[in-house]
Amino acid sequence: MVEIIVGEKGTGKTKHLLDRVNQDITSVQGTLVYIDKSPKYMYQLDSRVRMINMPDYPISGTEELICFLCGVISQNSSIETIFIDSFHVNFVLSVSQKEEKLPEELNATIWLSL
User: What's the whole-model pTM score?
Assistant: First the structure.
């Protein structure tokens, strides 16, 4: 599932995201990952959350980011949620569901239906 927090710069999106991460860590069995473009929020996260500071990695485009995320997921099979803050990215998802069972508002986003 993809969930999106929307708002203009300075409206508190990061605060809500951090609150959600710290709330979710109390009820998950696996691992939570928080990816940001800066380590400045590291000390606001519960110590059980894995923080990834993206400038530490040479990612320069959407394809490289997707490959990076695949690598993160492949190295830890217990990851339950990945939170990503402050990135402009396109995602292409494969969903194991019949088209007619998806919410109608997703129809415009369907690239291929098999």
Answer: 0.77
